[in-house]
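Think of the structure tokens as a kind of shorthand, similar to the way a musician reads notation: each symbol stands for something richer, in this case the local conformation of the backbone. In the example below we present two proteins back to back. Begin with the first one, reading the sequence and then the tokens, and try to describe in your own words what changes along the chain.
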Amino acid sequence: MSVYALAVCEGRMLLTRLSGASPVFAPGLWHLPGGGVDPGEQPVEALVRELREETGLEAAGAELLDARSYAVTRDGVDWHLTALFYAVDLPAGGAPEVSETGGSTDAVAWVPLPDLPDVPLSPAAQDGVRLLRARTG
């Protein structure tokens, strides 16, 4: 199971770029902050941990929005995962930066919402954008 954060602030969406260490989705795609839930870890705890590792930011609150399933073949491996999507509140201020070294994220940025159609997004990030649009109208 994976968890993903949908964070929007001042007309921008928080995205991470997948590195060559990404096991499921292709490197270079922009993705939602998040990742796998460790054994015995609660989904919201995983969300907070992944957000901190990939962006250096702390979640002030999280609301479960939806769940999606994905089937992806990458490097000859078939991946089947279920992802939980959370709307995340972040405290004002603070520039994001990747704090985890050697992980599946090599960059993080606030991307203006009007620029999203021109950004190469992972399937999960595409679903996140659709969820955001459905939520905000």
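Once you have a description of the first chain, move to the second and do the same.
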Amino acid sequence: MEKKNIEKLLNKLNNDFGFNLKYSDNFKMAFCHSSYANEKRIAKHLNYERLEFLGDAVVELTTSEFLFKKFSELSEGELTKLRASIVCEKTLVKYALLLKLDKCIFLGKGEEKMGGRSRAALLADIFESFTGALYLETNLETVKIFLNNTLFTEVKDLEYHTFVDYKTILQEFVSKIKLGNIEYQVLDSTGPSHLKTFTSGVVIDGKLYGSGSATTKKESEQLSAKEALEKLGYKD
């Protein structure tokens, strides 16, 4: 079933963007979870993780180039913050689901029962591993076309101020006013393992300044940082 879903994905990309993609070992490996490799007694390195390593670098490079050209007025620091807000778990998961990459993952039976196919961290990694495989099977220009029609649609028609990295802003502000050390803590988590809601708090110099709840720890930390900035009277 997973192989058929990968073939469907490749055919859709071929039809939508004029690619000539064919099912290959690289595309299979991009979706091979370690639990599946262990179950099938496949060599440990033959899973998605190496391709995720490559895809992460490819996504960062192409995103950097895209932002560099689009926002010619932004400084290095502003571009870095903007890139971090785009290439984040939440956005990668969004496009992994839109592309139905979750249907393509080869999982071990135990991981499947535990809801691994819905885990945000895995879906984000799979988006990057698929991008790594796409790069190996084609070239950087093809990857740019793919990302231009997926990930980059997040920023194409929007302005810089739409994207805010509250954690970085809080770190810089707290350092400026010499308030103390920042620490993020998980205050609570509810729901089954594959559909958890996390509540994180930001503690500065031993005092809780903000909290936030979301389906990922990273997002909940961003929301807690936003609340802390509001309590501290931060003005942009």
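Compare your description with these statements about the second chain. The beta strands are 182-190, 197-204, 207-214.
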